[in-house]
Design brief:
Layout (H helix, E strand, L loop, with lengths): L1 H6 L1 H27 L2 H19 L4 E3 L6 E6 L5 E4 L5 H13 L4 H32 L4 H28 L9
């Protein structure tokens, strides 16, 4: 059965990516988030980095303690932004890594490209949270739209762009789904 599936490389890629995503989703949602404080510790590190950057830009910031798996961060004088598990970027990092790992290509290139891509996705998320904090401070009425649409589109576009860069420049495969 597996050999027959491997013959159709596209179906094998889709199945492999779905299996990896399902495994990561299960690990994250049902083990990491519920049995550890790792998720909230990661959110706290994101907040600390955002505070450091904004304070170096001359803003005075605030951050709350965790309440119901959410932490609030912002610029003094604003309502701030709520940051919880869905906002920490881990799902996007998983998604990026899974696409690269599941796609055919040189393992040596994957070993440097996946960590670099995860760092880029994390950086984009930091920039997103800082931008949302600035929007909350200057134009709170635009916060929901930008959170829901603008930054979601930009973040997923960045992940797709990184994957396309992998496919076209670094995977070293030509016609990877030919039988």
């Amino acid at each position: 059965m597996l050999n027959k599936l491997k013959q159709n490389k596209f179906q094998y890629f889709i199945l492999k990516a779905a299996f990896l995503y399902g495994s990561c989703y299960f690990l994250y949602e049902f083990i990491l988030k519920h049995l550890t404080k790792g998720d909230q510790l990661f959110v706290r590190q994101i907040i600390n980095l955002c505070q450091w950057i904004l304070e170096h830009m001359g803003y005075k910031t605030f951050a709350s303690a965790e309440v119901n798996d959410v932490q609030v961060f912002g610029i003094d004088g604003s309502n701030g932004v709520w940051i919880g598990g869905p906002c920490n970027g881990i799902t996007l990092m998983f998604l990026f890594a899974i696409f690269v790992i599941a796609y055919p290509g040189n393992i040596k290139n994957k070993l440097w490209y996946v960590p670099l891509g995860i760092l880029i996705v994390h950086s984009i998320n930091i920039i997103r949270i800082i931008a949302l904090a600035l929007i909350s401070y200057y134009n709170y009425e635009y916060l929901d739209f930008n959170h829901t649409y603008t930054f979601t589109f930009l973040a997923y576009s960045a992940v797709f762009g990184l994957w396309m860069l992998w496919v076209n420049k670094f995977s070293n495969t030509s016609k990877p789904f030919e039988n």
